[in-house]
Amino acid sequence: MKLKSLLASASAALLTACGSVDVDRYAAEQPALDLPVFFNGTIDAWGLFQKRNGEVARRFHVEIQASWAGPDLGTLDERFTYSDGEKQRRVWTLKRQPDGSWRGSADDVMGVATGHVAGNALHWTYVLKLPVDGKEYEVNFDDWMWQMDDHSMMNRSTMSKFGVDLGEVTLFFRKRAGTSPS
Predict the structure, then answer these.
(1) Are residues 48 and 169 in contact, defined by beta-carbon separation less than 8 angstroms?
(2) pLDDT at res. 13
(3) Are 170 and 156 in contact (CB under 8 A)?
(4) Measured distance CA(50)–CA(123) in Å, rounded
(5) Per-residue pLDDT averaged across 56-76, rounded?
């Protein structure tokens, strides 16, 4: 019986991997995402975490202060406020690589996040140290962002551990008035 379970899990994982979308699929989509232009100044984001059964478990607001030291090195200072009053902070350092890809680091990210931009899309993958009920779990994030217009972006992240889907995070980003458009 264990062998059947293992084979079923492996088959599901392979099917999921084969079905994943390549970011280059979005190469012709507009507006073209330029990270240093879109993520510059103050950006607000509203989001929620849904368990794998679809139940909304948490809602939050994020205020992002984004700045750049040239076109290839940026900082995103994210301040989260959850609907239950909890507050968190994550500070990302983003670096463009010679091949045009991006690397990101933050205190609660294991190793380095890797990202690729094509057209209006950014695809990030990383492992986040996620605090839950006094414990810390290392959770895989498959993170997609799509720029919708000069001032807004949608974000959908799938969270998993050991290949098991834990849920999804959905965010809507909006640049504040007075922040220059892309």
Answers:
(1) yes
(2) 44
(3) yes
(4) 20
(5) 97
What is the per-residue pLDDT for 178? Answer: 75
- Predicted TM-score (pTM) of the model is 0.85
| Residue 58 near residue 47, CB atoms below 8 Å | no
Mean pLDDT of 132-161: 95
* Residue 11 forms part of a structural domain: no
Q: How far is CA 151 from CA 38, 87, 147, in A?
A: 8, 25, 8
Q: Are strands 73-82 and 164-175 parallel, antiparallel or unpaired?
A: unpaired
What is the number of structural domains in the chain?
A: 1
Whether residue 139 is predicted with pLDDT greater than 90 in this model: the reply is yes
Specify if 16 maps to a domain.
no
Supply the range of the domain harboring residue 59: 31-175
The angle at the Cα of 21, spanning 15 to 22, to the nearest 5 degrees, equals: 125
Using the predicted structure, report yes or no on whether residue 11 has a pLDDT greater than 60: no
Q: What is the CATH number of the domain that holds 92?
A: 2.40.128.20
Cβ burial of 155 (10 Å; 0-12, 13-18, 19+) is middle
Query: Which tokens is 159 given?
Result: 């969270």
Across residues 161-172, what is the average pLDDT? 96
- For the stretch 52-63, what's the b/e string if a residue is b when 16 or more beta carbons lie within 10 angstroms of its beta carbon? eeeeeebebebe
Q: How far is Cα 4 from Cα 13, in angstroms, rounded to an integer?
A: 14
Q: Quick one: DSSP state of residue 180?
A: P
Quick one: CA torsion of 24, 26, 32, 38, rounded to 10 degrees? Answer: -90
